Amino acid sequence: MANVVIFGSGKGSNARRLIAFFEGNPQVKITALVSDKPRRGFLDISYDHRINLEIIKGPELADPKWINHLKLMYRPDLIVLAGYMRLIPAEFIQAFPDKIINLHPALLPDFGGKGMYGNHVHQAVIAAGKTETGISIHKVNERYDEGEMLFQATCPVLPNDTAETLAARIHTLEHEHLPQVVERLLTNN
To answer: Which CATH number among 3.40.1790.10, 3.40.50.170, 3.30.2000.10, 3.40.1160.10 corresponds to the domain 2-107+136-149+174-187?
Structure first.
């Protein structure tokens, strides 16, 4: 069985989608949720699905105590950053080599880096006059949004788009493709 830990900072719609996708799958188990903030979204998901929630501030991820706790308690085969807004410390990446992926709401390498998350990304895409955007799923390294690319999917940017309307299309792409990419990585297909 493959164990998955999901990291997030927001409402957790992608975490919910991953949990629903793998529910009843004997090969994959979501063993924990990790958030840097005790927000309603992740608290509700933890309660609704009886999945442990760990609140760990970003810099604390470098602490060997937390690294060992996550390794021993949850044994992650894959860590999925789904709306997690902090830079992952090098110590954490080294403890879980090639086991951390990130979902980004734009077509990298454009519109990536510090501060490029949520509506900030969508506003930048619209302001740049782009006619296409999408999602990127990549391995995590020590720099924001620069790890090895695993998958991208696109959607149009329409003339009347706002950050909110564009975000809705991006969420549709995320919910469709993230679970499939995770499944493919865990089953090596």
So the answer is: 3.40.50.170
